[in-house]
Amino acid sequence: PHVSAARYGKDNVRVYKVHRDQSTGVQTVAEMTVCCLLEGDIETSYTKADNSVVVATDSVKNTIYLLAKQSPVTPPEYFASLLGSHFIKKYSHIHAAHVKIITHHWERMTIDGKPHPHSFVKNAGETRNVEATISRKDGISITSSIVGLSVLKSTGSAFHGFVRDEYTTLPETWDRILSTDVDAGWTWKTFGTHEAVQASVGKFDKAWEAARDITLKRFATDDSASVQATMYKMSEDILAAVPETETVTYALPNKHYFELDLSWHKGIKNTGTDAEVYVPQSGPNGLIKCSVSRG
Ligand SMILES: O=c1[nH]c(=O)c2nn[nH]c2[nH]1
Fold this sequence. Notes:
Bound molecules: 8-azaxanthine
Radius of gyration: 24 Å
Strand content: 35-45%
Number of strands: 10
Order of helices and strands: EEHHHEEEEHHHEEEE
């Protein structure tokens, strides 16, 4: 037997950084959870108990905090590239670093109609993520994503015309609730070097804002024929809005709200156009995935 693949490092490295603008007193915060895994000529640490090739995971953790102190931690695409590039520059036997950054969304409070200088609210669950592979040979591939953005529309969604056979019980509907937890990702054209990522640093926040606005607008305004049809339109829009992206990927759970027949009680009407009270389902849920690429 032989090592066919190996990577190791530190996961769940929680980092918080504050920027204090002395002139305005405005403070800005960033919080993220980092996973950094190293790949390279490390097989003998598995096969021969040879620790001489091991950059300790503790050192990986230390490096994350040191670079967070010495460099900007935002946008997360920049920091992931900086972190991964550090390891392949510093250690000649490390040939790739796999970095995942989950950034937590501290939204500045508005108090008495004004942005508060140092107070924030966390949007429950929504994160902005980056997964990057920094490779000595293949350059820097980065996928950015929005995860955990929960949305619901109370109408404007239909689902009919699907396969009807001896396995089908689902009634067709022209008016249903649609709810999902958005997982939307966009993959950037590969960057040759960290300097190329640095040169594009202004594009990452704009792309995230565009992807988030597009997702919400299409979700709200599309007269949805299905999750599939709506997510495709979202993907097309993001490709058009962010030319440096190659592929857009969505994974959308269909979080069902079932109609509830109450007619057993004095003939109460609560289905079809009379439906008002529904039963939100924890599971099973639909899961609709797609990747949309250029051309
Ligand atoms: O939007 C939908 N897509 C589907 O594939 C599906 N299947 N059941 N309900 C569904 N809704």
